[in-house]
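In the design runs reported in the main text, the only information available to the sequence generator was the tokenized backbone. The following block is the verbatim input for one such run; it is reproduced so that readers can re-run the procedure and compare outputs position by position.
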């Protein structure tokens, strides 16, 4: 029965190809259908990740309808538009461990659902040639982005490559290589370039580590960045990097000195003390417990308690203390919180 359905889909897909001049995106079925067709036709899969309200995505529609683009993609791929706002799109990207920085993003898979290549498009590269080049790289074992990791391991430190791999490592959620490539990039370029447009774009899209020298340069020269860019955007960019670093697995290993640095940076961005306390209490209390300063850790946790604290919160804080320290005074307070949680 399944073979019969696949045959019908193949016939339908072929008829669609002949019915239109441009790229034939599968209109029926779902992602399982796409990869079933790919296996049946021994082709790779092309997914255009888009959002219905994305104006850049809409601008690419006529480009995908160009005959030369259609001929190329129809010959080499089973194509499908993946709406990032749908449950199907979100579930697939989560399962594949992919983080979409912007739309449209082109994803190329082999028929076994193994990612071969990623291409992120913008308004400035909207052309048939760019689309065909993306597909050509996907089909080239030496050019596809899946080879970037090995190239980096082999010592490739060319500036443009570091930018590209930094971007791709962010998409595939390779935090280790993302941090490493962006640190390598910061060392590669002159410090005079830390404040240029490319560096600010990397801060917005790629850099996720608040120890990166470009990020440090921004935090030490906020007024200069404010003059070149929208202040709200600069602050949001800086805040995103700080919080990404803090809430990563690294954050739970921060020292109290590092926590104070985080606090100082958030203060520079105009965030009030109470809000900062609410954001960093987990990492700060853990740091104090780890550094054998339980009294200070309990002060941090005590700031979270007020007249509106509910039973569930008391229970959680009690468990947090018990899992963090063996200090008698801290455990005594935790027991009192546990009693209030009953």
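Verbatim output:
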């Amino acid at each position: 029965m399944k073979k019969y359905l696949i045959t019908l889909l193949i016939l339908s897909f072929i008829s669609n190809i002949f019915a239109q001049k441009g790229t034939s995106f599968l209109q029926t079925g779902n992602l399982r259908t796409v990869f079933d067709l790919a296996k049946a036709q021994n082709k790779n899969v092309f997914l255009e990740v888009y959002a219905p309200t994305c104006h850049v995505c809409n601008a690419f529609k006529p480009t995908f309808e160009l005959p030369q683009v259609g001929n190329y993609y129809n010959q080499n791929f089973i194509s499908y538009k993946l709406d990032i706002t749908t449950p199907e799109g979100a579930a697939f990207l989560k399962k594949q461990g992919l983080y979409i920085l912007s739309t449209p993003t082109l994803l190329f898979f082999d028929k076994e659902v193994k990612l071969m290549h990623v291409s992120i498009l913008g308004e400035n590269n909207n052309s048939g040639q760019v689309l065909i080049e993306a597909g050509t790289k996907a089909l080239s074992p030496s050019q596809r982005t899946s080879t970037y990791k090995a190239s980096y391991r082999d010592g490739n430190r060319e500036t443009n490559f570091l930018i590209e791999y930094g971007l791709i490592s962010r998409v595939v959620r390779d935090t280790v290589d993302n941090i490493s490539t962006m640190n390598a990039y910061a060392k590669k370029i002159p410090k005079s370039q830390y404040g240029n447009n490319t560096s600010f774009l990397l801060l917005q899209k790629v850099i996720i580590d608040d120890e990166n020298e470009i990020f440090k340069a921004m935090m030490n020269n906020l007024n200069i960045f404010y003059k070149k860019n929208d202040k709200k955007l600069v602050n949001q960019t800086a805040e995103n990097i700080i919080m990404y670093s803090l809430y990563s697995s690294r954050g739970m290993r921060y020292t109290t000195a590092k926590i104070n640095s985080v606090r100082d940076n958030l203060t520079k961005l105009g965030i009030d003390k109470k809000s900062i306390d609410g954001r960093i209490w987990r990492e700060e209390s853990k740091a104090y417990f780890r550094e054998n300063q339980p009294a200070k850790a309990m002060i941090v946790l005590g700031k979270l308690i007020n007249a509106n604290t509910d039973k569930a919160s008391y229970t959680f804080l009690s468990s947090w203390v018990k899992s963090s320290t063996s200090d008698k005074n801290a455990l005594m307070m935790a027991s009192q919180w546990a009693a209030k949680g009953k």
